[in-house]
Design a protein that fits this description.
- By secondary structure, this protein is α+β, with helices and mostly antiparallel strands.
- The chain has a single domain, classed as Cytochrome Bc1 Complex, Chain D, domain 2.
- It contains 11 helices and 4 strands; from the N terminus they run E-E-H-H-H-H-H-H-H-H-E-H-E-H-H.
- The strands form 2 sheets. A two-stranded antiparallel sheet has the order 1-2. Strands 3-4 form a two-stranded antiparallel sheet.
- Helix 1 packs across helix 6 and helix 3 crosses helix 6.
- The chain starts with 6 loop residues before the first strand and ends in a 30-residue tail after the last helix.
Length: about 350
């Protein structure tokens, strides 16, 4: 049995005592023993690991974030009045929609799997092909994409300008009377930057808590490293910081027409080079890959082992890596769903069924 040494102190307690000869009370010190719990052990963060813990979200402008939150959830930025940013990047579902490809305007089938919005601020660029340099630039894309929200920036801004509460809030945040798409995307990006997920069990292990993960999970991480997976999945996001070819050792067979970075650079060397996805919260963001071709984590590990690092994992090894990947689920964003301001009599009517 392990016995902890307890520290015993004394506490001076004032006691009022009356004396017959002197009417005024006298302060007498009474000694009371106090038991103090032993100090918690000081954790030593691990060094030399290719993975870093995710930090807590930083909010520079709360009013800006609150405005961006409303815009992120507001379907009136779409032609149908039905699709919002949250439709494809559902915060209650790991920041994705759990579909092989998202559903856009008039049930349009999207061309690619929606990446998670959680921890997206850690990416070197946005979209699978990196065509947006940051979250602000990305935020404007779906609004004007005919297959997604199917609006125009001018029409979206017109809707916001017709809603008095939005006009007041934009003025409060930006100190000007006008609304434009630059301010819209700036606010949305400010909100998205807060969607980080710290305190995963693996982060706690990285910070020195040996009990945070099991032996099987630790073995999965060691196998993940020794197999070469961390050459692409590294850093705080375990990905998102480079473009890599899908199918290094073996060709990846897919029905998807996506060609990756080549669509942006037109350089043949970039054909099928995709932004490495983050593995943070990966147990929540199924199906996997740019085409949603792997329905489960086990399948994703199997395929990536074969085509990227040339390894065929045993069932036990696969299960061990999957167990490790599930330790990467951090604290999910937790806030009240924003109350959106009502439309006015002049707000354009949505067109969910029109051309």
């Amino acid at each position: 049995m392990k016995i902890h040494t307890l520290v015993v102190g004394v506490l001076a307690v004032g006691v009022m005592v009356s004396c017959s000869k002197k009417p005024e009370p006298i302060l007498v010190k009474k000694v009371v023993p106090v038991v103090v719990s032993p100090l918690a052990p000081v954790l030593q963060p691990r060094t030399g690991e290719p993975v870093k813990p995710v930090g807590a979200p930083k909010v520079a402008d709360l009013a800006m974030v609150d405005l961006g939150k409303k815009l992120f959830f507001d379907p009136r930025l779409s032609k149908s009045g039905f699709i919002s940013c949250n439709s494809c990047h559902n915060i209650s579902m790991g920041g994705s929609d759990n579909l092989k490809s998202s559903i856009g305007h008039k049930w349009h089938q999207g061309p690619i799997n929606a990446p998670t919005v959680l921890n997206s601020s850690l990416n070197l660029a946005q979209f699978w092909d990196g065509r947006a340099k940051d979250l602000k630039e990305q935020a404007g894309g779906p609004i004007s994409n005919p297959g997604e929200m199917s609006f125009t920036h001018d029409l979206a801004v017109g809707v916001l300008q017709s809603i008095p509460a939005y006009v007041d809030e934009f003025k409060k945040v930006f100190k000007v009377d006008t609304i434009d798409i630059d301010k819209v995307t700036t606010a949305i990006a400010a909100f998205e930057e807060t969607l980080v997920t710290p305190n995963s069990r693996f982060d706690k292990w990285l910070k020195g808590d040996d009990a945070a993960i099991s032996k099987e999970e630790l073995a999965g991480y060691e196998l993940f490293k020794s197999s070469g997976c961390t050459s692409c999945h590294n850093g705080a996001a375990l990905g998102g910081n480079s473009f890599q070819k899908m199918g290094v050792v073996q060709q990846y067979k897919s029905k998807s027409t996506a060609v990756g970075r080549f669509a942006v650079t037109k350089d043949n060397a970039d054909r099928f080079q995709f932004k490495v996805p983050t593995l943070r919260n990966v147990e929540l963001t199924y199906p996997y890959f740019h085409d949603g071709g792997a329905p489960t984590l086990a399948k994703a590990v199997e395929v990536m082992g074969q085509i990227q690092v040339g390894k065929t994992f045993t069932a036990e090894q696969n299960a061990s890596i999957v167990a490790f990947l599930k330790t990467l689920t951090g604290d999910q964003p937790n806030f009240p769903i924003p109350q959106l301001p009502p439309s006015s009599d002049t707000t354009p009517a949505p067109q969910p069924f029109g051309k």
